[in-house]
Design brief:
Layout lengths: L1 H22 L2 H12 L11 H4 L6 H6 L9 H16 L6 E6 L11 E2 L6 E5 L5 H8 L14 E5 L2 H7 L3 H11 L6 E5 L6 E6 L8 H13 L3 E3 L6 E5 L2 E5 L3 H5 L4 E8 L2 H8 L1 H15 L8 H12 L9 H6 L4 H5 L4 H10 L9 H7 L17
Antiparallel strand pairs: 1-9, 1-10, 2-7, 3-4, 4-6, 5-6, 8-9
Helix pairs in contact: 5-12, 11-12, 12-13
């Protein structure tokens, strides 16, 4: 029966989307939306019947099945669904921030870059007879390896276009490497005037290794590659317009530490980021704001429903996502968890542990096909004498 209901729901959704986007004109679409927005649930009817048709599907997909009618165009649906999913899951996915600064800034102040981000290629150089290495050795910048070792140099080619786009230079990259290598006398970092956009990492003293090339590769990959050149971790792209910076990704705590930023004019849409920085009440306000933005369109969502969802995710004093991990954290029964995600897994675990549970919640009643105690006649009036 479950497979039949699920196939019916999928086919109905497909036909509805096709009619809305392909066949109906503007007037017909508006009439269609108005007709469906006036639909009401009869008193005493199980409002969870829609959920019973989606047993085994992720919680976000259940919530989103009613969201398809919120937008009037395909663009709103495609943009709204992933965003709503990231909000309910409490993730950093698709997070953004808007920052006001006191001066004109460059992308290097915000965009997080490491060595591999600006280095399209690298290789081992065996020819150490260049005039540049002779000068470097003369001024104690570099020491030629002794005879029992094979002399090699790890050469990094820096992308000139990225350097120009992010407004960084070879000196900045070299300084970051030198800072990270402080106290290490095995290698030396040389910016060669002979080769533009090239940084050489040379062996400073002899290293007793059978395979000197592999030694240098391992040394560079483990120490040099993870080095941060510039930016804030978590921010991957920026759009700068005068003193306003819009970022893809959010790191509120690090952004507030910049001296050229108006701390009171920073807006982040990441509830987790705001919670980690400002606390649970601020995170709840962000939840209400972001849910209100996503749930827009011709179908009205009552503010009390959005506030109720925000309260549900924050009433434990921390961010609890609306997914299977959140249900486990809240201690829901196996039946309740099986009604949302991983149906077979949850039921198998309960069977292996010989768990005996009473049917109490609405989800428990839905998954076994019994009538839920909702609607009329659920309130008993007690007379105190």
């Amino acid at each position: 029966m479950h497979a039949l209901l699920l196939s019916y729901v999928k086919e109905a959704c497909r036909r509805q989307s096709y009619c809305q986007l392909q066949k109906l004109n503007e007037n017909e679409r508006q009439a269609f939306i108005a007709r469906h927005s006036q639909a009401q649930v009869c008193l005493g009817e199980d409002v969870g019947v829609i959920a019973s048709q989606s047993i085994g599907q992720p919680t976000t997909q259940i919530a989103l099945s009613s969201f398809h009618s919120a937008g009037t165009t395909a663009v709103e649906v495609l943009e709204g669904i992933p965003r709503l999913e990231s909000i309910l899951n409490g993730s950093f996915k698709q997070s953004t921030s808007t920052i006001r600064t006191t001066k004109h800034t460059s992308p290097s102040h915000f965009v997080y870059l490491t060595i591999p981000d600006v280095m399209p290629s690298y290789y081992i150089e065996h020819d150490l007879d260049s005039w540049w290495y002779t000068i470097a050795e003369k001024h104690n910048f570099y020491t030629t390896p002794t005879s029992y070792n094979k002399g090699v140099v790890f050469r990094m080619i820096i992308d000139s276009k990225k350097m120009k786009a992010y407004k960084i230079n070879l000196k900045l990259i070299r300084d970051r490497i030198v800072e990270s290598m402080y106290g290490n006398n095995i290698i030396r970092i040389l910016v060669s005037p002979e080769f533009e956009h090239t940084i050489d990492i040379a062996v400073q003293r002899a290293v007793k290794s059978k395979d000197i090339e592999m030694y240098v590769y391992d040394l560079v990959k483990s120490i040099i590659f993870p080095i941060q050149i510039c930016g804030i971790k978590g921010i991957g792209y920026v759009l700068i317009n005068n003193n306003e910076v819009k970022t893809k990704g959010s790191s509120l705590l690090s952004t507030l530490g910049l001296d050229f930023v108006y701390t009171k004019l920073i807006i982040s849409d990441s509830t987790v980021d705001v919670f980690n920085c400002l606390g649970i009440e601020a995170a709840r306000n962000v939840l209400v704001r972001e849910l209100s933005k996503v749930l827009k369109g011709d179908v009205c969502f009552d503010d009390k429903h959005i506030n109720l969802l925000a309260d549900f995710m924050t009433n434990k004093g921390k961010m609890v996502p609306v997914n299977i991990s959140g249900m486990v954290e809240r201690g829901h029964s196996y039946l309740t968890r099986a009604s949302n995600e991983r149906t077979i897994v949850e039921l198998a675990r309960a069977a292996c542990k010989e768990v005996a549970e009473s049917v109490q919640s609405i989800s428990d009643n839905i998954i076994i096909g019994s009538r839920s105690k909702i609607g009329r006649c659920i309130i008993d009036i007690l007379h105190h004498t």
